[in-house]
Amino acid sequence: MAGVAASLGTDPLALADLLRVANAPGFERWREQVRRTGGCSDPIHLSGTTVTRDRATGDVLYSYSTADEPGGRLRVACGNRRASRCPSCAWTYAGDTYHLIRAGITGDERKSVPATVRDHPRVFATLTAPSFGPVHNRPASGRCRCGVQHPENSPLLGTALDPATYDYAGAVLWNNHAGHLWQRFTIYLRREIAARAGITQAALKESCRVSFGKVAEFQKRGAIHFHAVVRLDGPDGPETTPPAWASVGLLDDAIRAAAARVAVTVPPAGTHPERTLRWGTQVDVQPIGALGQEELTEQAVASYVAKYATKAAETTGTVDRRIGEPAELARLDVPDHTRRLIEACWTLDGDYPGRMLARWSHMLGFRGHFSTKSRAYSTTLGALRQTRADYRAAQERRERGLPDPDDSEGSTLVIAHWTYAGHGHTPGESWLAASIARDIRTNRELVREIRAELEAAELGEW
């Protein structure tokens, strides 16, 4: 108990609440509920009933009510993708993103992507923002412009060398229009591919399709950039073979050319002049290796994308919730560089009312999706979630002795009524839920390590 008290800090109320929860009559059932959410840190509370009847006879085959649950509530996972909000649900989201991205690289018949995509031209591209002014960094020479050799975890990294001359307005406007820049890039990319293949854009649609899966990431300086797996398929997607002219070299060249062409004009507003937003000059394109034939492996790419799918702008020191008014900034513990970016959003909001800069000031102006993909790249996150839900539903039917709806030809009827009853945990419950989440994650990682060792041993035998 001493260890528990230490981890809870010096808050006697939290410790008292922990003892209350652990000694409550329904504790074991509460713990089972939380375990089934994966240790969610902010579960949704529901109250209600569900009844399964035989459609022909009207007999009740199964009934459930939250009246018998602890507190009269059922707890379900919040599903938040942000690790800063819910590490457990973010871990699940990252896993789904990993499988989605990896399926588009290696193929997975269970996800409707043939293994032949490994023979298609595939690259991992990174598009960055331009410079808005010099910042503290760790160059190859080891010494920053300020004359100091910063350690890797220095809080100065990414902050402006001279805040008075740094273009904070340009930085947040660039973040705000990053989605438009990506959209223009995909349009120009198809044009550049067609030009290099010596065909028209109409002919390109009949012979080749460009597929991608991307994720956004915030740099320490507060500028967004995109990582994307870009793949060339045949005209009908991953099931079809790309044309003979399609190659990694052609795709690499087309990506760089398309990025250089993109320009989004922001009209003048108030005292702010017209701006032309472009991608930064640092465009990185790397081929993705099959079976480790290249330095950048398929698994490494999927893991990298999944890692950043659960992060937002928190890496810059900002908050993960909306800021209601500028006065809130005085109460927020954020770095000066980040504070200036947030202030720029509020300052520009009146001049660019349609851009909702103040609403997205906690995201430093960025208002796009962090993870997106083209339609034919691979499966969808929704499909992955549905597969998981169907699997759990089948498990519950077997446990309750209920017929499979696919085999019973609609012989059962489910009547359910649910209402929202709140969310979250008490202080003691939060500690217990975090402990459960850690145990679940540790067990899963142990299983993965064992599987990896077994696979390595089998490969060694061959």
UniProtKB/TrEMBL annotation:
> What InterPro entries does the entry give?
RepSA (IPR046828), RepSA_streptomyces (IPR048241)
In terms of Pfam families, this protein maps to: RepSA
Would you say which domain of life the source belongs to? Bacteria
NCBIfam families per record = rep_init_RepSA (NF041486)
- Name the record gives this protein: Replication initiator protein RepSA
